[in-house]
Amino acid sequence: MDPTRVDLSALPVVEVELSRLSSVCSPRTSGEDPDHVEMLLSTEWELPPILVHRPTMRVVDGQHRLKAARVRGDTKIQARFIDGTESDAFVLAVAANIRHGLPLSLADRKRAAVQIIGTHPQWSDRRVASATGISAGTVADLRKRGGENGSEARIGRDGRIRPVDSSERRQLAADLIRNDPGLSLRQVAKQVGISPETVRDVRGRLERGENPTPDGSRRSRTKQHPLSLTEPDLGHALDRERLAVLEKLKADPTLRLSEVGRILLRMLTMHSIDGQEWERILRGVPPHLYGVVAGFARDHARVWAGFADHLENRATDLATGAIA
After folding, report:
1. Between the CA atoms of 290, 295, 296 and 297, what dihedral angle is there, to the nearest 10 degrees?
2. Which of 100, 176, 216, 280 is the most buried (most CB within 10 A)?
3. Model confidence, pTM
4. Please, what's the b/e burial string for 206-245 (b: 16 or more CB within 10 A of its CB; e: otherwise)?
5. Angle at which helices 167-179 and 196-207 pack, to 10 degrees?
6. Residue 157 has what DSSP assignment?
7. SS3 for 33?
8. How confident is the model at residue 16 (pLDDT cuts 50, 70, 90)?
């Protein structure tokens, strides 16, 4: 069982006798919160089923609901069962407790991360972070403090195996981004074999003039080549294709007849100018405003890149049936 990919809502709901259940699986070291139990006792709606590890009958999620049921004098409670190892059950317990109900404290989440690093050392920092609700950087720090040497590769949130030392792959990603800035995060990640978030970090470093690897956070000393805005053949071909697509978008009633669509069309039109026009604008920027305008341009570029990533992610989700 992969505890990060279990669809809990698809599990059947059954009634379980309270006397069969144990509550020692909780990642909450402070124990039950009396005020939260009181709140559950006073609620008028039906509480969701608890989650139980079938092999041990330990409550993975729902300690306070279990306590409230016992206080009411109930003999049974609705539950969903999961199988798998106890270490996987603990991961589910942590993940469930950071997403709803009474949140785990930061100290509890860090302790849980340390335990998960011990039981799942092959997991990447981001995968542990997603299960515990802390940052990947904090997980990496906890891993170092524990003296965990790790392996040459780790399993990411998407289930793919990636090398721990991704310096070479970051450099490859940087080369791809430099050669084709229009590539999406997922396209670069797929070609290079790193996560989209790592690609995002690489792109951000390049935009700031830094080396693409974290250990090279100093400003890049490599010679900066001027941006060529007017490549005679390829540039004009791309301009014509883009303008042709834009004309089709303007004729699309789903965009033309909606307020948001018209705003989007105006924004796309504003940026759909040819290389010569860009060159004219570049020459027209006063020297004392180079830095300010460059800052605005980079900020807008990041916004557009993020917008493009969201659209491509939604297109992928739609294709795989993730969006109803």
Report:
1. 80
2. 176
3. 0.43
4. beeebbbbeeeeeeeeeeeeeeeeeeeeebeeebeeeeee
5. 60
6. T
7. coil
8. very high
Tell me how far apart the alpha carbons of residues 302 and 218 are, in angstroms, rounded to a whole number. Answer: 21
Q: How far apart are CA 283 and CA 317, in angstroms?
A: 43
How far is CA 33 from each of CA 40, 71, 76, 110, rounded to the nearest angstrom?
11, 14, 22, 20
The residue written with tokens 């697509």 in the block is 245
pLDDT at residue 294 tops 50: yes
Average pLDDT over the chain reads 76
Of 79, 87, 89, 195, give the one whose Cα is nearest residue 136. 195
What totals of helices (H) and strands (E) does the chain contain, helices first?
Answer: 14, 6
| Model confidence pLDDT, tens digit, residues 169-184 | 788 888 888 888 888 8
Report the candidate in 114, 116, 124 with the shortest Cα–Cα distance to residue 164: 124
- Residues 19-51 have pLDDT tens digits of 998 876 666 766 677 888 888 888 777 788 888
Per-residue pLDDT band for 102 (boundaries 50, 70, 90) equals low
